[in-house]
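the two lines:
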Amino acid sequence: MTQFLSLLLNGLSLGAIYALIALGFAVIFKASEVVSFMHGSLLLFGAYTIARVGSEIGFVWGVLVGVLATATIGLLVERVLINRLRGAAVISLAILTIGVDILLVTDLTRRIGSDILNVAHPWGGDVVRFGDVGITQNRLIAIGVAAVLIAAFFAVFKFSDWGVAMRAAAEDGETAALMGIRLGRVSALAWVVAGALAAVAGLFLVGAPTPGVQPGLQAVALRAFPAAILGGLDSTGGALVGGLIIGLAESFTAGYQDQLLFLGRGFGDVMPYVVMILVLLVRPSGLFGTKELTRV
Amino acid sequence: MSDPGRWVARLLLLAGVLVLLALPLYVEEFWLRTGFACCGAIIGAIGLNLLVGTTGLLSLAHAFFLAVGAVTYVFVSGAPGGTATRVEGLELPPLLGMVLGVVVAGLAGLLFSPMAARLRGIYLGVASLGLVFIGQHLLNTMTAVTGGFNGRTAPKFSLFGFTFSDSDPNLFVLNVPFGEAERLWYLGIALALAAYLFARNLLNSRAGRALQSLRDSEVAAAVMGVNVQGYKARVFLVSSMYAGLAGVLYALSIGSVAPESFALDLSVLYLAMIVLGGLGSVGGAVLGAIFVSALPLVFQQYAGQLPFVSEPGQGGVNAGQAARLLFGLTIVLVMLFQPAGLAGFFRRKPRRPAAAGPAATAPPSTSVQGSTA
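prediction for all of em together
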């Protein structure tokens, strides 16, 4: 039972981090119809900047600069590249982001080199215990921060002008544009939000119990992909649920891997994808995605 | 048809093939090995292009099918043994291994094809992404077949007693020793040419037109009597058979098979090849494959002569990274300025009807769009 609760708690915290990343995917897809394959590298960039700047001028400034810088990268990509190709095929845009991803990852990998950069989280690697159930402080704070950010996001999404504009744009871009909604601005803001969320997720992903900033971080971030897809790419609520499902699935599979030995060691890393494929087989547009209708 | 342009094109193709056949007499081993790697990539890229470019089914699982082909080949033709981890092998003739590699990869594609019936567009792409990670897991855990994390060596290819290695039999052509690189070069050229011609003919056939109609509109295709699911399954079969053959050539070219060779990077590279070359164009896939697979090798070879590239461990940009940067940049620039890819440079612009008035040149599609919603 202790193990179960501990895995549940850790799975939730991992899921909360995935949800932050997946929310970024969903927002970008809603606003600009782009499936961003560069999200992993955005996250890596955020974590790298936080680590480098944080070690120079202190943790809080590091986080601020890192989040702003990552949001700026998002903005730049949208303005310079995506905006010019408005209306291009989804696959072309996806491949464009792959190109940017290759550039970012190659340069970051070169800069990181073989050393592992550590972000000096003020909360360190301490473990908090509730009875027998333990979780690192880092992950506990991650749950809190993610909950606040996600709640704030949904509030903005529901009540602010930008949120309304974005939902209108996603519903019917042409009509929204005719009503005076500036699609370019909606999409640019979406990329800024997604970049900032990715940087925050990066901040927690490089803390205990996971190792510091290393190029492999990108692969971890990639697991938010199944999260976004299984929730339904165009659903923000789905991103949240998907993130939690994927986090829990990964945590439980890794925790009970001794009982699951017939699947082979390290199956936890694969579990997100297996869950995703199974969900997609039953619901092809994800759990909460809009069903694609074909009218003749 | 007695179109003179057609004959010129054929003569050029023939001349090109002749030059390629004579090449081992003149150039160094490095270029032949690079060429063989390119041939493998060409076959894989043509296969992926049939799926993504022609039929419009986004797949990121190509690395998985390559892995299936490569592993089947080393398992069927390899010998049991292994130093660190024990591996099994059937020691059957390499030709049989190659054929089985292609067939098993094709079957794997056929098994996955029902996913394409359920999922559309980007959902299919990400679902196929899952296959790559599942493949990685299998490669790492099925140690008896794959050799596990460290992989296993690939057996040399041979054809009816003629081995594609440095000896057995020793071979000299015009006093040039024909070793492994020279022999594999011919193998690669032959297979790549066959793959190219097959794809060209396929696209010009009834099946090819059916696939293209699937890409443009599934509903319209179904109305015209195209068996949508049947063709999706068949194109997955053919595409992954191409991938399987590419996997076998990859194993022969590297000399071994290891899980890390078939990670997501490889799928992305193949996608980059066909996009750079031009989606839907067989010739474009060939160009893209040559560009993407030769670039890092050539950079590595000539790193010393390149001004902005530093030696490994000196902090600057090393050859592999420079190649990756160049190639990321190329993808971005091509998508921005030439979305039709490298093939777009060779395509003639459609001639405007000179006599027709302005009404004929206006795009007729705008009036249709609103009515579909």
